[in-house]
Structure formats: C-alpha cells, structure tokens
Amino acid sequence: MQARNYPERSDTVYFFGTCLMDAVYPDAGMAAIRMLESLGVKVVFPPDQSCCGQPAYNSGFTREARAVARKQIQVFTKSYPIVVPSGSCAGMMKHHYPDLFAGTPDEADARRFSERVYEWSEYLATVLAVELEDRGDPLTITWHSSCHALREMDVIRYSKDLIHQLKNVTLVELERETECCGFGGTFAVKQPAISAAMVKDKVDDIRRTGATTLVAGDCGCLMNITGAMEHAGVAIAGKHLAEFLWERTNG
Amino acid sequence: MGNHTRFDFEHNVTGALADDQLRKNLRNAMDILVDKRRAVFPDSEYLEQLRSAGNAIKRRALKQLPRLLEQLEANCTKNGIQVHWAEDTNEANRIVLDIMHRHDAPAIVKGKSMVSEEMHLNHFLDEQGIEAVETDLGEFIIQLNHETPSHIIVPAIHKNKDEVAAIFHDKIPDTPYTEDVEELTAIARRVLRKRFAAAKVGLSGVNFAIAETGTLLLVENEGNGRMCTTVPEVHVAVMGLEKVIEKLSDVPPLLQLLTGSATGQVITTYVNMISSPRKSEEKDGPKEVHLVILDNGRSRMLADPEFRQTLLCIRCGTCLNHCPVYVRIGGHAYGHVYPGPIGKILTPQMEGLDRAGVLATASSLCGACGEVCPVKIPIPDLIRRLRNESYDQDGSAVVAGSGYKKNVAETLVWKGWELANRLPVLNEMGTRLAGKVGKRMPKVGPLKKWTRVRTSPKVARTSLHERARNERVKDE
Predict the structure, then answer these.
(1) Residue numbers of A between 84 and 113 with CB closer than 8 Å to B
(2) What global pTM score does this model have?
(3) If one looks up domain B41-299 in CATH, what number appears?
C-alpha cells in the first residue's frame, strides 16, 4: 500500500460517528470528539449523518448502500477533513465509495468525499502529531487489529503509536493479531457457526495475554469480542481506543 | 462430491467444526505454510513488485487469450503435441477415454492435477472400467481412503501422520503399521514404482503453457510428475484455458510467485518443461503427448471485466493457507473441487450461484486472501459481487443461477434500513426506541444467532446524536 500524503492541520474537522457508536458506544464517540477538541481542533458533528452503508454493501444490496452513502456525501459538504473512529467505516468511505458511485452522476463528489476521509487514530498520529501524557495507573492491555483498519486503511501502526506513548501501559500483543475476530457484519449471523469458532479462538488468544483490558479501534469487532467474552464469563473489559486514550490522558 | 451429491454447506460446516483433530491438523499445517511463505519473501517491497509483475503478465495473457491459445495450439502441433479442445468436463473426459481405448490401456498413472479433479476423471474412468492411479503422495493417501483433496496444493493436509499410518496399514495389503515417515514414503514408493512401470498412459496437469514456444511447464517435488510424463508411452496433459501465457520470459516471475506462495520454496525439486514427444534420436520419453484444453465456464468468466480476474489464478493455494474460514472448516466442507477463498469465487461461477452461491456468504471479507494473492486477485471484491448477483436487484447479473436469493422479506429489511439511515428523523427515532427497549436488545431475528455465543448488544439510553446535541458539539 502506498504511503498517504497528509495535509496541514485544519482548524475544523468533521466527525463521522458511525452507526454502531451512535447506538451502542456513544461514550467512545464523545471521547473521540473531546480528544480532538482538546488538541485545539473544532469538531463538527452533522446531525443528519447516519451509516456509511457498508452493511448493505457487503450483503448484496448495493442500491440501498448507495442511497445511504449518498446521504453522507450530501451531509458532509464542506471541505473539512472527515475523521472516522473506525477503520472499517473509514475503509468503506475511502476505498469503496469511488467504486460504489463509479459511472454515476455522483462519482466526482464521491471521490472528493473519499479523499477527505481519515481514520481517527491516523488523524491524531499524523496530521495532529499528538503527544499524550499518561495519567493512569499501571495497566496491562492487549490490542485487537480490525481487518479493515489493517488491510484497507493501513493505520494499525498509528493506533499502536498512540498506545505506546502511554508510559504506564504495557501492551501484550496477541499471538494471532492479524486474524479476523469473526465479526464481518452480517457474516456473524449468515454463517453463525464459523463466526462463533473464530471469535472463540480470538477470546482464547486474548485470555492468554493476561491483559485486563482489550483495546480496539472498531466498534464492530469490539461488540463481537466483548459479547463473546461476557457470554463466556471472561472478566476482561473491552474499550474503544478513543475512550481508552481519553480516560488515560484525562483521568 | 460436486456434481454427484446434494451440497449442504451448513451440515458440512457443523461436522468440520466439531472435528477437533481436523482443526488441529489444519491449524498446524497452515501455520507451517504461512511461515514458509513469509520466510521466502522477506522483502515486502520486492514481493509487492513481484506481485504487480505477476498480475501484469497474467492480465496481458488474458487480454489476448484467444490469440495466445491459437498460437499455443500451432506451436504445440509443430512440436508434435496433439492438442484437443474441450468445452466442458464431459468432453474432456471423453477425450482422455478415447486415448485410453486407442492404446488399450487398463490403467492411467496420474500426477497431481486439479483440472482432472474438476473433471471428476477418476470417477468417470472407474465407470468405464479403467483404473486411475494417483501418484502424488498426498493424492495417493486420500485415494486409498476414498477421499477427495481438501487443499489444492497439499491434498491430504487434513490428515496427520498417525492417520496416514493407519490408512496404509488398513488399505495396502501386507503393510505393517508404522508411523515412521521414511518408512511410509518407502511403502508408497514400492507400490507406485510398479504402477509407473506397467502404465501405458500417464496424466499430468499444467502450471503454465507457453504460447511462444509450445511448452508445457509442470512443477512438482516428488518426481512422480516426471515419471507420469516420461515413463508411459503416452502422456496426456490437461489444463484450464487460463493457463496459457505469452512467452518464455514470463515464466521466471510467475514461477517464483507460484512456488514461493504455495510451499515457500525458491524453486521446486522438479521443474519439467515439456516441448514434444520423444524424438527419433532419443532413447526415452513418451511417444505421444496430448494436451487437453478445458473451458468449463472459463470463457464466460473472461467475458466480464471484473469476474475475468478469477482467471488470473495460478493455483498456488496461499489464499487457503491464510483464510480464517478455511483453517477452521477445511477443504471438504466447501463441497466442491476448489475450496477456500478462490473456491468461493470460482465454484459459484462454474456450478451456478443457485447451486453454490452459499459459498460467497462464508467470508467475513477480512481481506487476508486478497492481501497475499500472488497475482493480486481482488477476491473480497469478487465475493461481494457474487453476493450482489445472488439477489440480482437490477437484472444485470452475468453468473448462471443469479438472483436465486431474491426475496421480498430481505429486500424489505434493507429498504427499511435504507430509509432509517437516509431520513434523520427515522434514524433518531430508531435508536431512541432501541435505547428504551431495555438494557439488552431482545434475542429475536438475527440476534437469535448472534446470542448463541455472545451477549446481546446493550443499546445506549442516549445516542451519540443526542449526546452531541446535548453536550453542545457544533453541528455545522
């Protein structure tokens, strides 16, 4: 993957909250926003935003995906960078929108939109060149890489850069860090048995690290893994990176 | 398998997931293959260049495929290789059978060939009273056990040493039980040598067919391929029509990609380049060489600019080795000749979506396959395209059996999803309602399956939309 050229910092950024954060992880969403603001950036949260469209796009319903994606393009109209606290949604908006709108009247708008999309930790580590001061107690954590943050956005190094800045946090890496947790959106319910086997192995891997907290950059994976841990009675907390960093630096 | 029995993917998956030994065997074997590949390509930048080169070579070949196939036929013919064309597997089987009959051959020794698996050649010949003898060690093992390959490179990978020991002891007469690998190999060699010596006809696959020179290139590690192609009087090579490449200078990068991706080898023990039958001054080699070129749906793939990329495949199997689904269910669960990620895109196109479309649902779209593919096939994108074609909303599908999943209920669900995500009022109402349902989402619909191994998601009482508004985040 070619390294991306990053722009100068912008006074104002858009925040795309993702549908999962909206409904299930609003604390993480607010933390991601507050973190950006604490770095001197004005954050705009367009209230008419919703979902990137990926659930339908990956399930064979391109028409519906396009309609929802078009809505986002119409909502994020100004030229601000669009910061997305999910490698998966960011990957959809950055890499798949151009294909989704290829040959349609919205193609040019879609491309302009895609160019402005950044994953949250990527934006913090590169454009904002953030320096974090850890105020938390010593803690051992492990980290789960989302497949799309890893392979579509190629931003895992930035997420980890941020974690490594925390002096009281020990990161124990997973044995199979690059292996999918089995979420895959509708895959989890279309092939529940395979998905279950995958998430079980992921939970076992997490347990073997001895960490008390699992940090991840994608709410889909987080919901899958923490749901499976809770079901199995595994007492390991799951946190989105934004919420984790906000707590560590403002605790 | 394949054409002969009904395909129940869910049943296969359930069985495979319950088989701990199978999962352990697969995990161990895939780890080794993944590590070996990584070791042979230590320089990621170089690998990236090589993959781009491989992609460009194969793309160039596909772009001029009809011309290259004609050139291949002309040059093979000039070299004395007899070329046969088969539209489907039935025709290909008939061609092989004719050759067998003409030479009055009761048996055929076979090197490893996925196209012959695609043809279900062994089964077909068996029905005609002709014995097909697999000579690749892995193929030999599973043939003894009446199984089909579970991997396109390492066909018996689902078996461990102890299981192989038991199969040899049970199925080969007068064979004492041994788990010693050297001894097991020696047993196979003893059995197979006799078969090589007696066979009138040998069969092989083809890794690359070079149009410029009329050469068939075959890589292998056991020497059985060389035996099959040189000891019998007649050599029959079978290939899918996408195996043709333009010129000899295309070979080195492709070969490096193939062996490196498949087995982590810089080069295989044997690299056979077959350009003609025995010449008059030569003392050995087959007197006849036949090349059977099979279409079996490939032309149809070629016609679509996106699906065409399926034909870039050089059958290295590395997408299987890296697939989190394959490593858990193994090759047999896919119910067809080509398993794993490549099988998920190849099989529905060959067999029809209505028959094999379920395979396209068996992916989390994690992208591991596309990341390692030596010729850069965008496998996840093609899986997604097959999912589209399964519903064929706008009637533009090209794959056979498309639209098989079209149904009002699911369409309505996604229509509703669209409306909720397009109309802000509905969206907010939805999350608000969900937040009020209680601490946990009720276990109905898709959540019934979700909650088999997970707790139900907790929908927040106050959504991010509301929080942003209440906590005065700017809205424009």
Answers:
(1) 99
(2) 0.96
(3) 3.40.50.10420
